[in-house]
Known about the structure:
Helix content is 44%, strand content 22%. The protein is an alpha/beta fold. The radius of gyration is 18 Å and the shape is globular.
Amino acid sequence: ILVVDVSASGSFGSVSQSKRELAAEVACLLAFSAIRNNDKVGLLLFSDRVELFIPPKKGRSHTLRIIREILFFEPAGRGTAPALALDYLNKVVTRGAVVFFISDFQTGDFSRELSVSGRRHDFIAVHIQDQREEVLPNVGIITLEDAETGEQIEINTADRTTRARFSALAEASRAELNQTLRRNSIDAISLRTGEDYLPALRSFFKQRERRLTIR
């Protein structure tokens, strides 16, 4: 099951690629691998609501439909509600599945729902990030807008304290997410826009294969 965050924050990208585009590339790659392995594959797209659910099936035409939806679906919502998406997933997918949850994880706490999904499924979190959400450049006074709420804030990036505080908040958020994933024994892959994601994916699956073989 590919669970893909299509909220408005995915439209951000400081390089030639947005987070939504990177998420789509990775999801499509995983869908193609399902064709090759003759696996069933399903899709759940979410924002602040469940936007689309396609139950798992085998077959090339089914998988191509999933890829088309990943690439071209236009969501109705702008916010992010992973807890709602996981609740829905846990209700409609009753048998254990391999779940790839692809998101930038810019949201509130959803650890309760994640705990249920982590116990029920083989759950893998794919964290999509952009460098400018972690480090501000020194470019003077700029206006930042929350893509999901439209809220704007003006900040002076020339101020060293402001840049340091921004980076510290981003690091704290990332550390909290990683702690939540570890606490629930969730495997994770971190990817950044503008970087080649194939080495990270290969490394993850090789480590995973070794770990499963040892078990």
